[in-house]
Write a structure and sequence with these properties.
With 476 residues, the protein is an alpha/beta fold. The chain has four domains: 127 residues, Response regulator (Rossmann fold); 148 residues, 3-Layer(aba) Sandwich (Rossmann fold); 84 residues, Helicase, Ruva Protein, domain 3 (Orthogonal Bundle), CATH 1.10.8.60; 62 residues, Arc Repressor Mutant, subunit A, CATH 1.10.10. It has 21 helices and 16 strands. Helix 1 packs antiparallel against helix 18, helix 2 packs parallel to helix 3 and helix 7 packs across helix 8. The chain is globular. The C terminus is likely disordered.
């Protein structure tokens, strides 16, 4: 196949997804071959040449990272993209270590997958990273990191963390307060070859230049008032490891110049000393302010910004990944379960959390649930247990039957593809509107609207027949 029409192998156990990807990618200029599971993919890939392979991670008959490894053994140079609804840092690192070129989280647009495949193909000649993937460290458990979420926005973060862990370059973590910048920096460190060495963090806000330089670079006795003895700084203490510098936007131009010198030379000089000391430290900076904009305005050193932002990880605010709220809440409640009594959110309390904008992001959610767990006497977290400013949020902002909207197939396909997709779903459930809604991850009202828009009323059971079907199934 020529690069104008790349030949793509799709492996997914869901017929609806196979049909959608085959039609959508074909419209985007790809030649597509579909199989039902990983075993078929391995067999076909061994006999037929493909430019790229796209595979679901979790399939009942041949899936997971073991199949990925076998595919990589059969086609060592072919880009392999994984599809997953279970995104995590651990999966990102293990997938890259097993030979995945990239992965994409459900739900996604077919256009997004097509663009990803084109990037993989265009970079194929230059990609020599496969030989390095086996060097990735694989800690047994990353669940204690606090980075929780399966939304596409968080999956993108996990991928960046996994790539950053393979590099020794400086990293800049950006995002609003409470989004988990230090957790992200720790994740980069924990999955890097430096993970056995120290990870040290310092908040640069509120410290004078003298105190900040003494904290980072160390000082000799008598260097300033109060320096009664010689002391090493955090750069020396973190030698071989990682140093995380938070709130860099608050630092002065003089300190920024000192930090730039260290990053360029790899040497530090204690305050008041004349000799320098070499250090091997990976620096990860962070800011909740837009350092690029500050640099353009002359309020932050541009050369330091570019030195820090070799790799940038931008953390999404919680309001942009509301599908992770329930998962985060469950995580925090499990951690808060000190009394042995399981903590659970009521439906109303969850609806209120889903309707809140969380300007304080994940930290605000954690604090709210900490308060709620202290007020709960029965193990149930009710609306009354939540902070007043959150409890006042109207649950009507977000309908509860749509709170799992991230599982919905909302790809903006052409009308004909959407119509065919809905037809297959209705045929699979014998016209039952509610079952079709459950299958597609949509609300019943949305399915009814789509049925009307595409004139598929003949395939959908009327209300009386539908109720009869449900009654019969319940009785069975």
């Amino acid at each position: 196949m020529t690069i104008e029409q790349p030949h793509i192998l799709i492996a997914d156990d869901d017929r609806l997804i196979r049909m959608t990807l085959e039609a959508g990618l074909s419209l985007n200029g790809f030649s597509v071959r579909c199989v039902r599971n990983g075993r078929e993919a391995i067999s076909i890939a061994a006999k037929e040449s493909f430019d790229a392979i796209v595979s679901d991670v979790y399939m009942p008959e041949g899936g997971g990272l073991d199949v990925l490894r076998e595919l990589r053994a059969v086609r060592p140079d072919v880009p392999i993209v994984l599809i997953t609804a279970q995104g995590s840092v651990d999966l990102a690192v293990r997938a890259l270590a097993a030979g995945a070129t990239d992965f994409i989280a459900k739900p996604f647009e077919v256009q997004a997958l097509a663009g990803l495949l084109r990037r993989c193909l265009s970079a194929r000649k230059e990609a020599a990273a496969d030989d390095k993937l086996g060097q990735l460290p694989q800690p047994d458990d990353f669940s204690s990191s606090g980075l929780i979420g399966r939304s596409p926005a968080m999956v993108k973060v996990y991928k960046l963390i996994a790539h950053a862990a393979r590099s020794n370059a400086t990293v800049l973590v950006t995002g609003e307060s409470g989004t988990g910048k230090e957790l992200t920096a720790r994740a980069v460190h924990d999955f890097s070859p430096r993970r056995e060495k120290p990870f040290l963090a310092v908040n640069c806000a509120g410290l004078t230049d003298t105190l900040l330089e003494a904290e980072l670079f160390g000082h000799v006795k008598g260097a300033f008032t109060g320096a009664t003895s010689e002391r090493e700084g955090l750069f020396e203490a973190a030698d071989g490891g990682t140093l995380f510098l938070d709130e860099l936007a608050s630092t002065s131009p003089a300190f920024q110049a000192s930090l730039l010198r260290v990053l360029q030379s790899g040497e530090v000089r204690r305050v008041g000393a004349t000799q320098t000391r070499h250090v091997d430290v990976r620096v990860i900076g962070a800011s909740n302010a837009d350092l690029r904009a500050l640099a353009e305005e002359g309020k932050f050193r541009p050369d330091l910004f570019y030195r820090l932002s070799v790799l940038t990880i931008d953390l999404p605010p919680l309001r942009q990944r509301t599908g992770d709220i329930e998962l985060l809440a469950q995580h925090f409640l499990r951690r808060l379960n000190n009394s042995g009594v399981p903590l659970h959110l009521t439906r109303d309390a969850l609806a209120v959390l889903l309707g809140h904008s969380f300007p304080g992001n994940v930290r605000e959610l954690e604090n709210a649930l900490t308060r709620a767990s202290a007020l709960s006497t029965s193990g149930l977290i009710t609306v009354d247990c939540l902070p007043p400013h959150i409890a006042a949020t109207s649950p009507e902002i977000r309908a509860t039957d749509d709170r799992l909207h991230e599982l919905a197939v909302d790809w903006p396909l052409l009308d004909e593809l959407e119509r065919r997709y809905l037809m297959l779903a209705l045929e699979r459930v014998r016209g039952n509107r509610q079952h079709a809604a459950d299958l597609l991850g949509l609300s019943r009202r949305t399915v009814q609207r789509l049925i009307a828009r595409h004139n598929l009323g003949a395939l959908a059971a009327d209300d009386a027949h539908e109720g009869h079907d449900l009654h019969e199934e319940d009785a069975a």
